[in-house]
Design a protein that fits this description.
Helices cover 96% and strands 0% of the residues. With 141 residues, it is mainly α.
């Protein structure tokens, strides 16, 4: 029935072990090394992606802080400009009021002096007016 030939069995065993050794050296070890390098590359890429994600978040926070600071500075500048404009307007209003008051006082003084001159003129001419009125009354009567 089955004859086991020791020489052939030993030859097949050596051949099998040799084939496993050759496959291990030429196929399995390079394949496993490639898979290990690939796993390492994937891990590094994942870590880089996480790092970039946190860097992006930090950059976003920094950008938001910068925007907030810029808006605050712009608000301060706007308020300063408004207050300066108000101060200029108030000084202009005050100077205009002072100028108007001076002109009013000058006008009042001119009116008073003209009034005095008119009084003097009328009082100086009162006898002539009285004489003229008396002559007109005489003509009427």
């Amino acid at each position: 029935m089955l004859d086991i030939q020791l020489g052939l069995l030993l030859f097949v065993a050596v051949l099998f072990l040799g084939l496993i050794y050759i496959l291990n050296k030429m196929l399995y070890q390079p394949l496993l090394a490639f898979m290990d390098r690939r796993d390492e590359t994937i891990k590094n890429d994942m870590n880089s992606a996480k790092q970039m994600g946190s860097d992006v978040e930090e950059a976003q926070k920094a950008a938001n802080e910068t925007i907030i600071a810029a808006k605050s500075k712009a608000h301060e500048i706007r308020q300063d400009a408004i207050s300066q404009a108000k101060e200029k307007a108030e000084t202009l209003i005050e100077s205009t009021k002072a100028s108007i008051e001076e002109k009013y006082d000058e006008f009042t003084k001119q009116l008073l002096s003209q009034r005095e001159e008119l009084k003097k003129s009328i009082t100086a001419n009162v006898p002539a007016y009285q004489k003229s009125i008396q002559e007109k009354l005489k003509k009427l009567s």
